[in-house]
Design a protein that fits this description.
binds adenosine-5'-diphosphate; 9-stranded mixed β-sheet; Uridylate_kinase_bac; alpha/beta; Carbamate kinase; 9 strands; binds uridine-5'-diphosphate; globular; pyrimidine biosynthesis; single chain
């Protein structure tokens, strides 16, 4: 076993990342690549929890934007995260990694419901646990779900694998000369209103003293490199 920088982690994968080059849905090639990264991290001795967003399939705000009921939209968004979790746990199982999806909204015919006790047991048995349906409540995001589960599971870090390679002074997709941070505090991210993760998630991680590591999910072996103390990422810690 290597001496890892973070032993128990929560990996947040954005739903959009799973689209690959498609404009919607799940690209199985991307799922398999991310699953490989998880497999390698686990082989190093990391204990891995996963939260996947739903933005590749559905976001609740899109219903509200058309005058519909936001709560119904959010229910649809949470169901999208369940689909992504099932795709990822399936890919992990297919490569011989024991993985179990746990949902915040009961659907016993499909997967086990989340309890902290049950999730810890699965993790201690060496399985990858995937948390589906976010927090289980409307008006939240999977970033908040990720911070919540990271706190509940006693994770050493919340690793946000996203489309960009860290936190910048402004959205790098809109402001090409934005400056990238290697490190920044939770308080400064909140103060500057940096949008890479929602404020509720950052505040929850700050309260629970959990560092957030923002890195590109598209960088093969990026996760492993960070666990080994290298890699390209922004580390948020106080
Ligand atoms: N200050 C910033 N630093 C980095 N990325 C930012 C920043 N502001 C906005 N973004 C954008 O935030 C996106 C990631 O946030 P979000 O869409 O919530 O991701 P996810 O779908 O992974 O939850 C990035 O793709 C980036 O374009
Ligand atoms: O605790 C939660 C988590 C997610 N969602 C819904 O699920 C959608 C997909 O999640 P998110 O936008 O966080 O996905 P990502 O941007 O990470 O792909 C959100 O837009 C919400 O509609 C929710 O209502 N409560």
């Amino acid at each position: 076993m290597e001496n890892l920088k973070y032993k128990r982690i929560l990996l947040k994968v954005s739903g959009e990342a799973l689209m690959g080059d498609q404009s919607f849905g799940i690209d199985q090639k991307v799922v398999a690549r991310v699953a490989q990264d998880i497999q390698k991290a686990q082989a190093l001795g990391a204990e891995i929890c996963v939260v996947i967003g739903g933005g590749n399939i559905f976001r609740g705000v899109s219903v509200a934007a058309q005058g519909g009921d936001r709560v119904v939209g959010d229910h649809m968004g949470m169901l999208a995260t369940v689909m992504n979790c099932l795709a990822m746990s399936n890919a992990l199982n297919a490569m011989g990694v024991a993985a179990v999806p746990l949902t915040a909204i009961a659907m016993p015919e499909i997967c086990e419901s989340f309890t902290q006790r049950g999730a810890k047991r699965h993790l201690e048995e060496g399985k990858v646990v995937l948390f589906a349906a976010g927090t289980g409540n409307p008006f939240f995001t999977t970033d908040s779900g990720a911070a919540l589960r990271a706190a509940e599971m006693g994770c050493d870090a919340l690793m946000k694998g996203t489309q960009v390679d860290g936190i910048y002074s402004a959205d790098p997709k809109k402001v090409p000369d934005a400056v990238r941070y290697d490190t920044i505090s939770h308080a400064e991210v909140l103060k500057q209103g940096l949008k890479v993760m929602d404020a509720a998630a950052i505040a929850l991680a700050q309260d629970s003293n959990i560092p957030i590591i923002v890195f590109s999910i598209h960088e093969p072996d990026g996760l492993v490199a960070i666990l080994q103390g290298g890699g390209r990422a922004t580390v948020v810690s106080d």
